[in-house]
Amino acid sequence: MKGETPPMPNCDFLNKMACGHVLRRMPNKGTYSPYLYSLHGVLNVKSIVPLSELHFFEVEHIDRADLFIGPITEGTAQKSVGARKIFANSSSATYSEHLGALGVVVCIDFLDKLRVGVSKLLLKSPHVLYVNVVEPLLRLLFASKGYVLLHSACLSRDGKGYLISAPPDTGKTTTILRCIGESGFEFLSDDMTILDRVGNLYAFPKPLTISAHTFSALCSNGDGSGPRIPSLRIRGYAHSRMGRKILRLLGRLTMVPIFTVNAIAQYFVEPPKVEITEIISDVSMGRRAKLRSMYFLTKGRPEIRPLATEEAVSRAILNSDDAFFFPPYDEIFPHVSIDCFSFRDLMTREHQMLFEVISNSECLKVASENYGWSRILIEAINHD
User: Fold this and answer.
1) Number of folded domains that form the chain
2) How confident is the prediction for the chain on average, in pLDDT?
C-alpha cells in the first residue's frame, strides 16, 4: 500500500541498459544489442525484448531513450499472496501480483527518465507487456511532449487525414480494411494515432488484431482476399470481445491474479495479429496527414450527422480511456509522474490538446445497424 517501503527495481541493470550496455545476441556475432525504436523522432524506446507493435519504428541507433524496459531480479518485489499490491513513493511505483516475481511484477522508476523493470513472465509475453505497460506509458510520454496518443484509426488521401473513433472491439479494423480495399485510401493506423497541437496526424501502424468477426467478414468478400492463416480464426475467438469482457470483470476481483492469468494465456495462445500487407498486398502506407474530419462509429439507424465539439471530445476521451483501462492501469499509473507532470496533469494536458485539435475540424457521428460504416464513410469522404 502507499506509504510502505517500496521494493526497489534492479537499478544496476536499468542503469546499464540506459547506457546501452545490456544487449541481445545478434546473428553470427558474439555481441548483443537492445531493440531500439524511434517514434517519429518524438520519443525513443529501448527494450531488452522485441515489441512487435513498434516494429514499424525500429531503428539501429538512438541518441537517448525516453523509456527503458528490462527485467527485475528475483526477490526484488515482496510477495503479495492473495492480493495485488502497490508500493509507491515520489520516485517509483511497483505493482506486485499475488506470487511476486513468480507472477507479474512491474517496477517503474520515474525520478529521471522512465525505467521499467518487469518479471520474467511478462518478458515471455511481450504482447501483454506492450498493451498493459508500454502503451500506457507511451500515452503519458506523448502528453508530456505536447502530443496525444489517441485510440483511433486513421486513413488519408491527398494529405487530408480522417480519424475513425469507436469503442474497442466495435469494428474499426474491418471498416478501414473495407475502405482501403474499395477506395484506395492511404493507411496510417487502425488502433492508435499520434496527434499534435495543430492537427497533424502521424502514423502508428501496429499489426492488426483479426477478431473472429473481422476474419469472417474478410473471408466473405468472395474475391479470395482476406487472411490466409488458418489459426487466426481460432485465435480470434480466444481473443474475442467476450473474452475481453470476462477479463475485465475478473480484473475487478482483487483476489484474481488477472495480469498473471492474461500473461500466461497469451504466452500459449498468441493474439491474432497480422501485418496489413498480409491482407492488402498493395496497400499505400502513409506517414503523416492533416486532420480534415473525425468520424465516430456507433450502432443504430443508418445516419451521419455533425457533432458539437464538446460531445466529440467527450466521445474521443471515453473511447480512448476504454482502450487503456485494464489492470494495472488504474492501479499503478496514477502514481507516475513525468517531467514534473503528475498523472492528473498529463491527462488534463492531453484533454486540452485534444479539444484544440477537434475544435478546428469537422466531427461526425456515423451510425449503422449492420457494420455498414465503410459505405457511409467512403461516400462522405468522396464528397469532401
Assistant:
1) 1
2) 81
